[in-house]
User: Fold these one by one.
Assistant:
Number 1:
Amino acid sequence: MSEKNKGAIEGGNHAALWSGRFKEGPDGAAVEFETSIYVDERMAQDDIKGSIAHATMLGEAGIIPKEESLQITGELQRIGEDLLSGKLKIDYSAEDIHSFIEGVLTDRLGEAGKKVHTGRSRNDQIALDERLYLRHAIPDLQRRIKTVVSVLVSIADKHKESLLSGYTHMQRAQPVSLAHHLCAWAWMLQRDWQRLEDALGRINKCPLGAGALAGSTLPLNREMVAESLGFEGVTDNSLDTVADRDYCIEFTAAFSLIMAHLSRFCEEIIIWSTEEFKFITLSEKWSTGSSIMPQKKNPDFAELIRGRTGKVYGNLIALLTMVKGLPLSYNRDMQEDKESLFDAYDTVYSCLEVFTHMIGTAQWNEAKMASSCVGGHSNATDVADYLVRKGMPFRTAHGVAAGAVRIAIEKNCNLEDLDITDFQRCSPLIEKDIFEYITPDGCMKNRKTTGGPAPEEVAKQIASLQDWINQ
């Protein structure tokens, strides 16, 4: 047993809420194994908020005397204030945050404090606490996503004409712009924000009143509690309510996608920061060196974000595995939901913060990026498109462009460096104006389809993203 836990267990003042049926208290090692307060203490204010709503309803419904209801709610507010000020410290001998707060309330109020749990189980209580916590934690995460997108959009707005090769299969494909590429990242993050928003809508029903699994024989006013806590209504089935951890899985799945996107961005940053590419120079504040090689400047923060993606994936698998064989309704396995959920949340939150600083302080090598559009015949499709505009079927034009590529390979030059006579050997439809279409700049600027890399099209994307950020 850890010394910290041993001291907490030996020095604790609060009996377990379920201890009445037992003649003997649990073994110290058993208490350490089952306790969750180290994980769920972050929900203390949410637990208090839910208990205030519940106690208020108990008084209004006449289930407990109204004066006792007022006593309870007033003292709960003071407990919350004392925790925030540091006047009251968490007692880690308590089994969980619910037991701690109820124990403090009872210590302060005596018999009246014991009435706070009337008509309630820890099963519906934790379901409420988690939903209340997520309702304020997820918007914090969404704001951080918008901050990242804002930084990306700001950089993109300065680089609408900064050429950069697009890649497929990690081979040079077609010229785009840095702005176009950064907007691609931004749209991924916008979808991540939307997924979180959708999931928030699904937790906006109040679970309190479901009890252990079958509701209550007391005349609880569930709707009153829901309204006072800002829920749109109450959950529909008491068994489902206490057995449900879909929301933990759904949010962690959304976190996993955020990390997948960050990991992909970081992979590109790592590649682009190499001497071979040198598209980006990371700030020294967001790089590290080597203990043996004095010359090194490593993209460690990008690598750490990429590495921590595995932690979040692991948390998702842990949650899915936790529920896969559980019969209805509540099982103690479900206590394990919070550690995975909170760890995934914390990891995503910190990675978004680091990514924001890392990308926001980076410098871009426009000349190096533009040079990636030269060579590799990434303008071959533009030769085919030129012929299509002349009336040639695309499949035929594709073959003609391939013939021009072969000539360029034989002459060891780029397509745009071929002589007009070389092009006309491939097709008499090709005229001197082809050179206006096959420069890297021309290839990028002529791609004016919606969502394409032409500066005016990227400007529309930037404006759309900016509108979304400002919503």
Number 2:
Amino acid sequence: MKIYDALTGKINKLPDDEVISIYYCGPTVYNDVHIGNIRPAITFDVLHRFLLQQRRKVIVLSNITDIDDKIIKVAQETNKTEPEISEHYFKNYVDVLRSLNILEIPFEKVSTNIENIISIIQKLIDAGYAYVKNGDVYFSVKKYKDYGCISKQNIDSLIKNVRIDNSIHKKSPLDFVLWKKTNVGLNWESPWSKGRPGWHTECVSIINKHLAEQITIHGGGVDLKFPHHENENAQNVALTNKNLAKNWVYVGHVTINNEKMSKSLNNFVLVKNLLNVYSYEIIRWFFYQTKYENPINFSYELLEQIKKDFIKIKKNINLGIINLFLSSHQVDASVIEYNNALDEKFSFHLNNDLDFPNAIKEFIEQNKSISSLIKQKNYIDLSKIIVYQVNELQILGIEYKNPLELEHELISKWKDALEQKNYPESDRIRNELISKGII
């Protein structure tokens, strides 16, 4: 399989002889996640599923940022503790992931990793890449010669455009906080002061602790490229002389009215609210309309069209399975569940940097062929297409429900009526299946 690496600007082949380690940045848990927040999780879930289908060994890990100024602010506004706020929204996030049928993966919270973070900061100080000023610890960006390699920016231009910082202790405007001296909010004792870690060390510490000094894929939303991932990588190179990841993979923004969706702009759509109106299949299918790295514009009109299209797709598959059963060429439920066969064209596009639009195009072409195969009574090819469709849906995170299990008694009666040439009864049953939305 090939994936685009933002660091080199090349499409790289994933190694065949190693465990594929994937880490993507999770949310800061001060609010419920919106549709833009969830796009990376769905993208990496498809990658996870596809690699498993290829019998690859895969480890996927993500973090939860439960220490942050935004969490402190919400805690103060609601008269609750920071752990109460972060745990509430973390549980909500996990509920959303389950509702979207995302494979369960482990999470590491920043608050459970403080000792490891302090150890890494001390190593950076000892190596001369970090310095202490009045209890704060900063990373010295100028010590790292390749700073800007991920975001393709150079230090001089970054310094010119950097936001004015009220800290007088930095040696350079680009230097970033590794440890912040503070008594506001949650804080811990450290060799330098009582305080809490900066944002950019948490992922390095979690990756080094649970995965390796260098992982296969590090990903997240494109807005994390700078400064977050740039700063992560700088620390890891300083510690290990290795880039943190072999491949840096970024997921594009979700826009609304062609403007980036964000909580700060108050133009977001919460996933939990969307799930009250649309099934998880429709929400997932929405993200497959464009390449994962490109922006995608959200609209309810698009979701309504996707809903109509997807209902038609499911009905076609149902009709194919029922016709195989009526013709005594049933696709056994165990075959549907365990057969991992995928259409070569569909697989080709997913192998080619998760090319969702072209994979979906092939899937829809397969789906359209079901009606003609039924008319031709070509049950061998129909059976193959059904197996492809069901397994491809599973790769896309959608669990297909077999109509032979949902309406077995009714469909069996339909078969009996056809065999007895009781056409009025067979028409009645067919109309009943139509009214139930089965076909």
